[in-house]
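Progress report, Aim 2. The chain analyzed during this reporting quarter is listed below.
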Amino acid sequence: MNKQTVAVFFGSRSAEHDVSIVTAISSVIKPLQMTKKYDVLPVYIAKDGRWFAGEALGRIDLFRSGKIDEYMAKHKPTLLELGDGLCLVRPSLRDIRTKIDVAFPATHGTHGEDGELMALFELANIPYVGCDMPASVLSMDKVLSKIIVEKAELPTPKYEWFYSADFSMNPEPILHVLKSLRYPLFVKPPHLGSSIGTSRVANETELINAVEVAMHYDNKVLVEEGVPNLIEVTVPIMGNEKPYPAIVEQPLTNSEDFFDFNTKYIRQGGKKTGGKGKAGAQGYSKIPADISKALYEKAEDTAVAVYKALGCSGIARIDLLIDSKSKILYFNEVNPLPGSLYAHNWRAAGVSGIQLVEDLVEYALQRYAEKRQLDTVFNTNFLQQF
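Predicted structure tokens for the chain:
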């Protein structure tokens, strides 16, 4: 029996390029290979947008050592053929053509996780893992996702948003509107994850500086109120029509004001831990979150409701904010492709890394089979009148 070819796409022209490499190699490529069920083809998208496919790209040392530049200098970029599905062509004296059975995107941020790759897979008419194109677009735009969630009558912190170009031309009207918000405020580029470009500000001077930072990353800027008496929780979810949560997790910081990029990825060495963590360390998480049973169940229910409202499928992570005094739970944001698939959390829930990627491939195949049953052609005699 021939194995299915699963292509894992990672890297891309994104500020989260490096995080994507770690997700792909440690949490996707290696577990897929360990299943022995699939032929796994790593597909690296360079920072300049060139594509490269090859087994050697599944080794972290190639990127950690900086030898990826040498690799790209020696190999011609991979070409894409659309027609009967998606075929990757590696140019050589005898071109190597590989037809893709399932696409497994492992990109983060812009030009990938934001729906661009998913649109390509839709055009190629192949199954792919994770949220579909519309859900990815909505989830990766923090402004649009908040609007959808509000329509679903789920609480979100008070916020305002504006286009970067409008602020550059005339900031005063926008700053006047922002005066309606209560400090501290959080300033975010709506299309980025990993807290890149996000700032916490306490006054208008800091606000203006933070807006300038966010504008370097996005054509829109989101400004929202901070939640008092904050407990931050995150809920990984998996599934299509019947999604289910893993474990409600509570990110912890010691001296930091919020769970920023360094806290998430650098100072903890890229690792997640359960339990209470140690003093002085950053990025530790409590699994499960240290909240009441009622709040825990409410967090699960709210996360699933958000997942459904945005049309998510496959996998996503829902971030929530809790006011520990009022017990009000607010929607924060959605990550349609969690870093490292949040495999540490799923392991704590009893789902191994291997089972996780196997389940995600199956969800992709199920969704693809269901979509193929829908009518996409409508026959008419319209052209006969011309």
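Residues 353-372 form the longest helix (20 residues). The radius of gyration is 22 Å. These observations will guide the mutagenesis work planned for the next reporting period.
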